[in-house]
Design goal:
The complex is a heterodimer of chains A (244) and B (240).
Chain A: E1 28-32, E2 40-46, E3 49-60, E4 73-80, H1 95-108, E5 120-130, H2 135-149, E6 159-166, E7 169-172, H3 176-181, E8 184-191, E9 196-200, E10 203-204, H4 208-242
Parallel strand pairs in A: 4-5
Antiparallel strand pairs in A: 1-2, 2-3, 3-5, 6-7, 6-8, 8-9, 8-10
Helix pairs in contact in A: 1-2
Chain B: E1 3-4, E2 8-10, E3 17-18, E4 23-27, E5 30-31, E6 36-39, E7 42-45, E8 49-54, E9 57-62, E10 74-82, E11 86-90, E12 97-100, H1 101-105, E13 125-132, E14 140-142, E15 149-151, E16 155-158, H2 164-168, H3 173-182, E17 185-188, E18 193-197, H4 201-216, H5 223-237
Parallel strand pairs in B: 5-9, 12-14
Antiparallel strand pairs in B: 1-2, 2-4, 3-8, 4-7, 6-7, 8-9, 10-11, 10-13, 11-12, 13-14, 13-15, 16-18, 17-18
Helix pairs in contact in B: 3-5, 4-5
Classes of the chains: A alpha+beta (244), B alpha+beta (240).
Chain lengths: 244, 240
Amino acid sequence: MGKKADIKLIREDGLRHDGRKPDELRPIKMEVGVLNNANGSALVEFGKTKVLAAVYGPRELHPRHMSLPDRAVIRCRYHMAPFSTEERKSPAPSRREIELSKVIREALEPVIFSELYPRATIDIFIEVLQADGGTRTTGITAASLALADAGIPIRDLVAGVAVGKVDGVLVLDIDQVEDEFGEADMPVAMMPTLGKITLLQLNGVLTPEEFKEALRLAEKGIKEIYKLQREALRKRYVEVSLEE
Amino acid sequence: MSTETVKGKVYVENRQLVLPGELLAEGDVQAQSPYIYKVEDKYYSAIIGLASVEDNKLNIIPLEGFYLPKVGDLVIGLIIDVGITNWIVDIRAPYRAIMNASDALNRQFNPIQDDLRKYFDVGDYVLAKISLFDRVHNPVLTIKDRGLGKIVHGRIVEIQVSKVPRVIGKKRTMINMLMNETGCDIVVAQNGRIWINCSNKELEDILILALKKIEAEAHTTGLTDRTRNFIREEKARRGL
């Protein structure tokens, strides 16, 4: 990796280092039902970031004493594969991964009707296969698709995207380079139909005006991602009926 | 696209595919599904399914999902553990079911003398009914009814739980067709296990293929006729 001086984050023509416009998402690919052994699964790619999500449950919780009498326990594991980064990442869960697991769980908890399944558990596994920035929001996007695929009742799909500030410009869906050398990074996840935010983090400094603008930008990106999510879910059923 | 009724507005058509978070209706409509939720006076879907609209009655038939026990349901369980006074049974639900010896043996029994493995052992299938289940208790099974008990012959086919209504069909049309065409006995349990009993191996294979076909194409229309043709073709091909 170069130093800041090596990389022009915003080029002279106003485009970003990878040729995107400031408010442009990376190319997104989504596929639902990719794993046979999980109850629900999804593979989501935001540019070079690739994340696999698998959902198990509701199922019996062991150890029993962890179960709750009035709702299902939601467990979430965010994990980066050793081969997901440029330098091998130790497969042991790092401090960062443990925190992200919690943050992602809290972003998904409000959409799940966990009160329908007392004493049970819903397990969400998020595996980062290739990391290039925005893995937590990609993970949330994939996990909500996997939840829908598992047939678990949810209020809405959750879509996430990170907004950043690089060279003084607010940009949508930042990648690794922009995250590393930019001035701010703000991951946002939402339930788009209900217009509710389930995740909002901010690393760096934004003025109140910039923050409002960044949130507006995130919302715009999330709406686009949400459309793709719905398409990905729909596609499975259309494909089957065309096979005849 | 919206259908305006006297009381409320319905935004979806009958048999339309709905996704979680999709706005279904507004105002005074009757939502008859646990998978429809209400925010203020708007109704949304919570799962992937097919909408069913009748006047201002709204329902969703799930396309994905798992088995949630209901008292009175007929299920096929798999014994996974034998206790001193009961069996633990897997019914493909989030909760493991319990079958009590006193309920299954239909006579007085003494846990010191009786070994429950003599009656049901791990790996046995049992056709049972759910006699008790609520938020606080795991489901309890009973075999005290006609036709219930250990399954000793035939085969068990597993399909997705959300496809069970399709295998039965409206007014049992599908299952009657399957039985007439193949001559097999079929018992469809609510938890997605199907017990089939055929006179020969070829018919059994055809029936399993037909069941798998219904499972894969559950959301399409005209399935009963297509499955009937499929069975006839397969029978002709195999010279039956």
